[in-house]
Structures are given as C-alpha cells and as structure tokens.
Amino acid sequence: MNQYNYEEIDIIKTAVNPFYRIMKIHLYLIDGLLIDTGPRIRKFNLIRAFRSKDIRQVAVTHSHDDHAGMAHWISEHFSADIYCHEKALPSLNKSALSPWYRRLFSSRHININVKSYPDIIRTPEHEFLPIATPGHTSNHVCLLEPDKGWLFSGDLYITPYPKVFLKHESINDYIESLNKLMSYNFDILFCAHEGVIHDGKEMLKRKLDYLLNIRRDVTELHQAGFTDREIKKRLFPDKVRLELMSFGLFSRLNMIRSCYRE
Fold first, then answer.
1. How far apart are alpha carbons 215 and 24 in whole angstroms?
2. Which residues are registered as beta bridge partners of 141?
3. Alpha carbons 122 and 5: distance in angstroms, whole number
4. Given the DSSP bridges, would you call strands 121-122 and 127-132 parallel, antiparallel or unpaired?
5. Measured distance CA(186)–CA(113) in Å, rounded
6. DSSP string covering 183-209
7. Are 207 and 161 in contact (CB under 8 A)?
8. What distances in angstroms separate CA 103 from CA 24, 25, 58, one per listed residue?
9. Where is pLDDT greater, at 210 or 104?
C-alpha cells in the first residue's frame, strides 16, 4: 500500500486483492471527504491508513465491493455521513453474501448504513457535485469539484479503449453518461483504478468516440448476420488479461452483446 498527495488530496493506493496485485484501487481523501472505501479483503492495511485520517464524510461511487467494502467499518469507527446513489441503497444497507466472483476481490458480506446523495456535498473548503453516470453499474456516480476542475470518476474511465465488459454493463448508458460529462468543465480526472489522469476531459472524449465507433461496428456486423464469436474475432482478436484473470466475468462477448441488446 502506498500513500501520497496530489495538491491537498491524500491518496491511498492498494491492491484490490492480495492474490491479484496487478489491479489497484485509489481512494481519495479531501478536506474530510473520503471518496470510495476500498475492499474489505484489504481491511488490515486500510484500517491502519484510516485510523490516522480525519474522515467526516464518505462518497461511494458505486456498490461494487472494491469501492464500498470498508464502509461498514468506517461507519462503526467514525462519525461520518456515508452517501451513495439511491439505487445502491437496497444492496448497501443490508447484509448479504456476495456472489462467488465478487469474493475473488472482496469479502463475503457488506453491511452498512448509507444515505442517498444530497444535491451538493460540502466540506469546509470545497463543494462536490454528485453526477449520476450509469454504465459500469446503474448506480454509478462521479463527483465534480467545479472550482478546481477535478472529476472523481470511480470506474467510469479506467481506460479509453475497453475491450471487455461485465454482463450488466451498458454501452448505451456509458455513452449517455460520457456525453453528459462533456457539458461540465474539468481537467484533472481521478480514476479509482488508474489514479490521476491529466487532460481528463480529453481522455473521456476519446473513450466516448471509441464506444460510439465500437457500437456502430458491432451493430452493423450483427445486422449483417455475423455471430457474436465472429464479431469478436474481427474486432477483438487478441486475448485480454482481465478476461483471463476474472475467469470470463469480464469478457469481450459481454461488450459485443451490449452493443445490440438495447
């Protein structure tokens, strides 16, 4: 685990899973606001980091365990308001056994008490605007600090050229969310997995253009009678490491099917 600063932002970086150290998670603490909590499977490292912090509010970008897994511990040890999208409330406010594939990257249970996002999250020095940005999940939220031009993007960005999706991910929602963000002014992107991205708006625009082109190409091939596997061979012929690491949970076929099923 590493800790470093970008301007006044305290950044905690750790592996999502001790057995899959390639995948990292970045947690951002600004003026008492913690953006995402990290996975419970990393609790011993994260507890040591959190104990020295002044956490007064928590913003969960979405309900996946690597982003929300430590929220329960934080709620028990800090007097902090914890926020998420209203669609995430049912899953985050109950104790439930995680699916087997999520337990590869997290713990077995999540049990926290959270609130729906307010219109604005205020800290002593900043204001953060929650922006609903479905795509990766239906309950995904980005946070914009407009005076600084900072966008905390959760899992919306990760890469401008994705080749794999989860089964529930929606390319149409991604495109709509990215179009929405183009109307805001920001420059620095704070990605949950890739860290600080300069020229952030340009990088999101690259992703938007890429997804539009992929959706067009897949739809044309699908309408011409090509099978999903034939489309995969044409558009995404190379194996993807995340697809192998996740045992197909993230897959090229999921991305292809998202292009025409909606």
1. 28
2. 132
3. 21
4. antiparallel
5. 31
6. TS---EEEETTTEEESSHHHHHHHHHH
7. yes
8. 16, 16, 23
9. 210
Sequence-distant (≥ 6) Cβ neighbours of residue 242 within 8 angstroms: 164, 250
d(CA 258, CA 170): 6
Tens of pLDDT, residues 40-61: 999 999 999 999 999 999 999 9
Helical axes 228-235 vs 200-223, angle rounded to 10°: 140
What integer pLDDT is reported at residue 53 of this predicted model? 95
- pLDDT at residue number 110: 46
Distance CA 50, CA 77 (A): 10
Domain 2-261 CATH superfamily: Ribonuclease Z/Hydroxyacylglutathione hydrolase-like (3.60.15.10)
Determine how β-strand 150-154 pairs with β-strand 141-145. antiparallel
DSSP string, the chain: -EEEEETTEEEEEEEEETTEEEEEEEEEEETTEEE----GGGHHHHHHHHHTS---EEE-SSSSHHHHTTHHHHHHHS--EEEE-GGGHHHHTS-EEPPTTGGGTS-SEE----EE--S-EE-SS-EEEEEE--SSSTT-EEEEETTTTEEEEETS-S-SS---B-TT--HHHHHHHHHHHTTS---EEEETTTEEESSHHHHHHHHHHHHHHHHHHHHHHHHTT--HHHHHHHH--S--HHHHHTTTSSBHHHHHHHHHH-
- Whole-structure pTM value: 0.90
Question: How many angstroms separate the CA atoms of 120 and 255, rounded?
Answer: 33
The mean pLDDT of 209-220, rounded to a whole number, is 98
pLDDT tens, 73-123?
A: 998 899 999 999 999 988 777 644 444 444 555 555 544 568 999 999 999
